[in-house]
Amino acid sequence: EVQLVESGGGLVQPGRSLRLSCAASGFTFNAYRFYWVRQAPGKGLEWVSTITTGTGTPYYTDAAKGRFTISRDNAEAMVYLQMNNLTPDDTAVYYCVRHGNGIDYWGKGTPVTISS
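Now predict its structure.
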């Protein structure tokens, strides 16, 4: 059974950091690209970051550049999103998403709330 399980979300103050994790199982992890996608309260889905297969080239939305770092551990079948200097605009549910021939599997998400 394919599983993507996010963790690491929570409530933190502006300027602080969080590290999100996505534990993958039930498939050949190395063969897939992964995204982090978020949904802020009352808003639509927003792509945040991508990490490719192989060398794991990262891509970021402009809002994430310089603050977020995506990484993957192929041995452990994990995807991470290190988020620094968080702002209230980063408040959202963050989803780990798998891409094979297309986007084909989503985790259930982990909520992130940035508030003083």
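The chain has a mean pLDDT of 96.
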